[in-house]
């Protein structure tokens, strides 16, 4: 790679790292995706390790995660037995799929939590102790608001599907 282009790429990767930190995202994954996205040829794990100055194990773990999202894919390079990777160039699709997956997980966790609390509330009401019933009624009202939020998130998933 041309020296100036490599410096520009380093600057971009550094800025991407700072952005990821602000959002609490895994910066190595983002840098790997950006590196592959900007590359004009498939890269091996060693190429990525040398470029990002992180361990091969770290590269391997993060590249597998990116692969599971469909953000990168393994490709065969004639004459080499190494694993090579290239980026899925559909950035919008990659990001929207990841957002959808994350939201879906949080919705499922919320549903489980609401179901568990509803069971607890029901048992408190079944016991019929006045204080427990009063508290259970308050919890029940608050859980309804959480269910509304869950429903809103589910609606957002439908919109993400339409964008995909």
List the helices and strands and how they pair.
Blueprint: H1 3-23, H2 27-38, E1 43-44, H3 45-52, H4 56-69, E2 72-75, E3 84-87, H5 91-127, H6 130-163
Antiparallel strand pairs: 1-3, 2-3
Helix pairs in contact: 1-2, 2-4, 5-6
Can you walk me through this structure?
It is a single chain. This protein is mainly alpha-helical. 77% of the residues lie in helices and 6% in strands. The chain has two domains: 3-89, Winged helix-like DNA-binding domain superfamily/Winged helix DNA-binding domain (Arc Repressor Mutant, subunit A); 92-163. The chain has helices at residues 3-23, 27-38, 45-52, 56-69, 91-127, 130-163; strands spanning 43-44, 72-75, 84-87. Strands 1-3-2 form a three-stranded antiparallel beta sheet. Helix 1 (3-23) packs antiparallel against helix 2, helix 2 (27-38) packs across helix 4 and helix 5 runs antiparallel to helix 6 (130-163).
């Amino acid at each position: 790679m041309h020296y100036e282009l490599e410096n520009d790429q380093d600057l971009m990767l550094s800025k991407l790292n700072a952005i990821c930190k602000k959002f609490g995202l895994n910066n190595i994954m983002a840098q790997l995706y950006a590196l592959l996205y900007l590359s004009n040829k498939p890269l091996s794990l060693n190429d990525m390790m040398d470029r990002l100055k992180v361990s091969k194990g770290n590269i391997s773990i993060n590249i597998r995660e990116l692969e599971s999202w469909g953000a990168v894919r393994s490709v065969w390079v004639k004459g080499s037995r190494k694993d090579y990777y290239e980026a899925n160039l559909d950035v919008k699709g990659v990001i929207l799929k990841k957002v959808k997956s994350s939201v879906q997980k949080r919705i499922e966790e919320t549903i489980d939590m609401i179901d568990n609390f509803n069971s607890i509330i029901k048992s408190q009401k079944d016991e019929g102790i006045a204080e427990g019933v009063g508290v259970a009624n308050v919890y029940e009202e608050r859980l309804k608001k959480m269910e509304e939020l869950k429903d809103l998130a589910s609606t957002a998933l439908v919109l993400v599907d339409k964008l995909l």
